[in-house]
Amino acid sequence: MWRFSLPLVRMSKKVRMFTTSEVRVGSPLTHARLSVFPLYTDQPIPASYRLAGPALADGTVVVEEATEGGNVPRLAVENKGDRPVLFIEGEELRGAKQNRVLNTSVLIGAGVRTVLPVSCVEQGRWRYTSKHFSPSQTGSSAKLRGVLKSSVSGSAKAGRGHGSDQSGVWSEVSRQMSSHGTSSPTMAMSDTFTAAKQAVDEHLSHMGYPEGASGLAVAVGGKVVLVDIFDCPNTCREVWPRLLSGATMDALEAADAPPPSETEVREAITAFRTQGWEAVPAAGLGEEYRGEPDGKWHGSVLAKDGVVIHASLVTSS
Length: 317
Hints:
alpha+beta, six-stranded antiparallel beta sheet, globular
């Protein structure tokens, strides 16, 4: 299992400290302006949960509008299974009255019906295309995740839950669409990905999942912009294509630059061990922590019983 030193404060008081093991940085996978460093952790353990994509596909989990009339930042989720189900920050859900993305990583307990904190990524539609939401094979870009994580952290630390800056999300979806020269009748982020599918598939064909990796550090145009670390390789393997699809969208906008060094990647990872993390109420099971380590990152950690399930950093600039 992966544990790491995490200085945590809440109301200026240290509340807990994880023990630590090292993260090994693998050789980068590089294609065009995108570099991905696989991350390996000590003693990975099998996941005690299912991932949302497969659970949605087989009907074990059902996600729908919170009410018949809909509620943009909240969706209803029911886990009919006997294991918890993990939704990942930035994961897109398509259907119902408009497409949404997850504001934060959420672990939904077995047999639980509750709400998911989400943001709209399809501004021009507010009508049903299906009753239930379906999983997507694409994920949010680092730029969009930065908008989400910054605003959600501010909301969570202020005790207002996991709400996002919805106008900021729409603005980033629109900016990305314009940058890629695409259009959409409903301003759907998914249409930008559809237009870029050939480029995304090309990147994925050059950057397949490296066996045993529990995480990845993503560099775009020579700069590390994103770090995701999970509790086990199986989770990382499952979400790898979705995370890289989002990173590819950033890379297609970037300028040419050599990939960063392993030292730069390690400097990003050590941000998890700096001061300034605060405990906030989790949206589902487990414990959640938020921080802006070193003033360079927006960070979050979801843990359960002291084991890190998903830790992530997104650049703040």
